[in-house]
């Protein structure tokens, strides 16, 4: 296996070195041109050299220098075509430097010159470049309009490569705003065009873009059954792009490909085991090392923290905790200097959280969960600031467009003035015909009067049509605002779901603690108010199953608060103490929750009684004892086909009406083969779709558990989920009843 891994890395590095050699040859030609142009006189030949340098140069500082020199020389020689090209290169330099306002000014100057020269191709190209700048400013509606103007103009010229490029840019913009289906359609149109013209660079961009779309779709649907298909589609497109890019000297494309290949293999390794997992991790690390070599060779000090995070995740998956710690520490140091995208920092925080969970340090793991929450709050503030900046940029752009329209209007007025002078001269020449004209006018006076009346009626009709059109546009604008607001809220809830999933134990952690186990979790509204929590400290295995007040976002917030408090209580408890009781944990949890929600203040009629129902279990693996304490949630134990129920206290975790008493601590002996279940009330309270609206109830639940407890837990998961769905369709028409609450059922076997 070590030899295979070494061969894989040598192959990737060899490919990168070959591509680097071809790029270095192109760089040598560019360096020679820069030496020659310094000694040339100021003429059009020197302008042509500047054009070559500005077209191929990628260094930002050098691009700023040579684009300025080209603008100055083109203005001096009054070469309008070269001046338009120079402003276009200048706009690209400002875009690289994130100076979007200056980039917009230069792009508009270039477009104005091409308009005066009536150069259709470069007008289309300038419109596309303006759309790219507007996209970086976040003005997506304006950018889309300019992209489609450019697309129509390129279709008139018949330039297939440029049509493909515009379609790719439209797809990139739709990917950024998460309109993934639109992005896929644009990429597929570009792919069809590039396939017909055999455009290798275009095909690489098309397949890389499609892979990026499917990777983003996978990240948003990571735990769904269809997510694996998105990952396979992304890998297929990346393999094709990688095969096409190998013989080409395009370093930027190779960086993208190595980055996405590493990401895809990492995600595949998360769902694999054994040799297949090791092979995926080997491929991931090989692409990471190749990407690092490229960036070191060309001194590209960007996103290295993301690469180190990926290598750290790979070592965590292998179980190499020391190496994982080294890579994650390097990523953290680079993050403080590079300040990468929020998405990269999120991955780093989640990797640290996983590291400390595997080490059993839940307090530090909880710290990184809190960092994730703070980052989410900062993202919300950043989005508000970005929207303000976008609005300001939009106003400045519209002001420039109005100035351009005003200049065109003044030019039109000059043209009309000249035409008026010519008309007056013509009137003088034909003055002899005035008498005949008057006679004709008198004879048609009545007809003109009727025409005026008809014209007036048409004006009134046009005014009404205009009002109707304005009302329609206003209604359409309001609908679009509602759609955007709804999409923003839904995206926020989905992001909250990822954070909640980071808080609750992963299936791997549950299997590490309890072995084979059952986890049936069905949120009612994306995020769940039901949660489970587990830990293994000392000789104790700990399990909590909780049902928080409400569901959706309020329930999810309460669940994260409960998990955090359980982490704190267990971390600060002496787990080797023989006096440790499950009821003590619930008493402490109730006290913490009452203080956190300020329920210890004076209660009034309007006060709320938010809290949670919990079944809490401590398993002493040395003494073979089980402690249970419950707040409204019972515990089911099945042994030798006999079902026993440990009843909870009829009081919640939180404030309630009545005297506050200590929770009861149940202690029972356990034997190998005992099966233990804890559940929320979502399963038993689910209605069927009949006239009686009957609930599923405890009796049916206990019968279902007793009938299936000996089966493997994965088979139980399928049976219980199907039984729940069948109950919701329990009517002659087969109509599905709406899910009434979050559903959680957890089972373990001794």
| Number of helices in the DSSP assignment | 24
Number of strands: 10
Query: What value does the Rg take, in angstroms?
Result: 35 Å
Measured by DSSP, the beta-strand proportion falls in: 5-15%
| Shape summary | globular
Largest sheet: 5 strands, antiparallel
Low-confidence stretches: 1-24, 382-395
Question: How would you characterize the overall build of this protein?
Answer:
By secondary structure, the protein is of the alpha+beta class. It contains 24 helices and ten strands. It has helices spanning 2-37, 44-56, 60-77, 80-96, 100-117, 120-137, 140-157, 160-176, 180-197, 200-220, 227-245, 251-270, 274-297, 304-318, 321-338, 342-359, 362-429, 434-443, 445-503, 507-514, 552-571, 582-596, 697-708, 713-728, and strands at 517-522, 530-537, 540-548, 612-620, 625-631, 635-639, 642-646, 666-669, 675-679, 743-749. The strands form two sheets. Strands 1-10-9-6-7 form a five-stranded antiparallel β-sheet, with helices on both faces. A five-stranded antiparallel β-sheet has the order 2-3-4-5-8, sandwiched between helices. It is globular and about 120 Å long.
How would you describe this structure in keywords?
alpha+beta; 10 strands; 750 residues
Short description:
The protein has 750 residues and is an alpha+beta fold. It has helices at 2-37, 44-56, 60-77, 80-96, 100-117, 120-137, 140-157, 160-176, 180-197, 200-220, 227-245, 251-270, 274-297, 304-318, 321-338, 342-359, 362-429, 434-443, 445-503, 507-514, 552-571, 582-596, 697-708, 713-728, and strands at 517-522, 530-537, 540-548, 612-620, 625-631, 635-639, 642-646, 666-669, 675-679, 743-749. Helices cover 69% and strands 9% of the residues.
């Amino acid at each position: 296996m070590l030899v295979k891994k070494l061969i894989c890395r040598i192959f990737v590095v060899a490919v990168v070195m070959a591509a680097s050699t071809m790029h270095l040859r192109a760089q040598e030609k560019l360096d020679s041109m820069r030496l020659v142009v310094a000694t040339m006189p100021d003429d059009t030949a020197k302008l042509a050299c500047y054009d070559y340098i500005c077209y191929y140069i990628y260094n930002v500082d050098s691009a700023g220098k040579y684009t300025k020199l080209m603008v100055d020389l083109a203005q001096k020689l009054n070469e309008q075509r070269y001046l338009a090209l120079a402003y276009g290169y200048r706009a690209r330099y400002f875009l690289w430097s994130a100076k979007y306002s200056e980039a917009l000014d230069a792009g508009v100057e270039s477009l104005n010159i091409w308009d005066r020269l009536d150069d259709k191709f470069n007008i289309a190209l300038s419109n596309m470049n303006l759309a790219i700048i507007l996209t970086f400013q976040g003005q997506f509606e304006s950018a889309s309009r300019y992209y489609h103007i450019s697309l129509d103009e390129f279709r008139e010229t018949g330039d297939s490569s440029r049509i493909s490029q515009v379609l790719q840019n439209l797809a990139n913009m739709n990917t950024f705003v998460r309109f993934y289906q639109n992005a896929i359609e644009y990429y597929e149109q570009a792919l069809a065009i590039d396939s017909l013209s055999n455009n290798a660079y275009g095909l690489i961009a098309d397949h890389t873009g499609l892979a990026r779309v499917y990777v983003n779709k996978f990240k948003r649907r990571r735990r769904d059954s269809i997510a694996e298909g998105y990952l396979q589609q992304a890998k297929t497109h990346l393999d094709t792009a990688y095969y096409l890019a190998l013989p080409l000297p395009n370093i930027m494309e190779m960086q993208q490909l190595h980055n996405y290949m590493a990401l895809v293999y990492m995600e595949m390794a998360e769902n694999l085991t054994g040799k297949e997992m090791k092979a995926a991790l080997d491929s991931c690390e090989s692409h990471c090392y190749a990407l690092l070599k490229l960036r070191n060779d060309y001194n590209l000090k960007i996103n290295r923290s993301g690469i180190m995070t990926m290598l750290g995740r790979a070592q965590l998956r292998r179980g190499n905790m020391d190496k994982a710690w080294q890579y994650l520490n390097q990523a953290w140091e680079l993050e403080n200097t590079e300040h990468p995208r929020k998405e990269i920092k999120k991955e780093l925080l989640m990797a640290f959280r996983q590291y400390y969970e595997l080490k059993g340090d839940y307090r530090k793991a909880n710290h990184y969960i809190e960092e994730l929450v703070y980052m989410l709050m900062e993202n919300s503030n950043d989005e508000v600031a970005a929207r303000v900046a976008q609005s300001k940029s939009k106003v400045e752009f519209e002001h420039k467009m109005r100035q351009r329209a005003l200049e065109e209007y003044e030019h039109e007025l000059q043209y009309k003035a000249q035409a008026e002078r010519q008309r007056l001269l013509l009137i003088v020449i034909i003055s002899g015909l005035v008498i005949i004209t008057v006679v004709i006018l008198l004879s048609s006076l009545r007809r003109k009067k009727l025409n005026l009346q008809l014209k007036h009626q048409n004006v009134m009709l046009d005014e009404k049509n205009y009002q109707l059109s304005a009302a329609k546009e206003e209604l359409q604008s309001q609908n679009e605002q509602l759609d955007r607001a709804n999409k923003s809220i839904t995206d926020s809830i989905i992001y909250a779901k990822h954070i909640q999933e980071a808080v609750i134990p992963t299936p791997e952690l549950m299997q590490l603690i309890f072995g084979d186990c059952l986890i049936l979790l069905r949120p009612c509204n994306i995020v769940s108010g039901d949660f489970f929590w587990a830990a293994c400290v000392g000789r104790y295995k700990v399990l909590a199953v909780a049902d928080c007040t409400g569901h959706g976002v309020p329930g999810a917030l309460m669940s994260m608060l409960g998990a955090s408090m359980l982490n704190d209580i267990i971390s600060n408890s002496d787990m080797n103490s023989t006096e440790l009781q499950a009821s003590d944990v619930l008493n402490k949890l109730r006290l913490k929750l009452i203080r956190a929600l300020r329920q210890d203040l004076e209660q009034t009629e309007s006060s709320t009684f938010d809290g949670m129902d919990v079944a809490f279990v401590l398993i002493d693996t040395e003494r073979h004892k089980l402690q249970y304490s419950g707040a409204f949630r019972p515990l089911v134990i099945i042994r030798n086909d006999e079902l026993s129920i440990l009843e909870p206290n009829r009081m919640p975790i939180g404030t309630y009406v009545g005297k506050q008493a200590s929770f009861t601590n149940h202690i029972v002996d356990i034997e190998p083969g005992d099966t233990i279940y804890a559940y929320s009330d979502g399963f038993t309270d689910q209605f069927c779709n009949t006239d009686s609206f009957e609930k599923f109830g405890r009796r049916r639940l206990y019968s279902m558990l007793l009938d299936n407890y000996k089966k493997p837990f994965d088979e139980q998961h399928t049976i219980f989920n199907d039984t729940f769905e069948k109950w919701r369709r329990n009517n002659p028409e087969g109509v599905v009843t709406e899910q009434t609450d979050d559903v959680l059922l957890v089972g373990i076997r001794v």
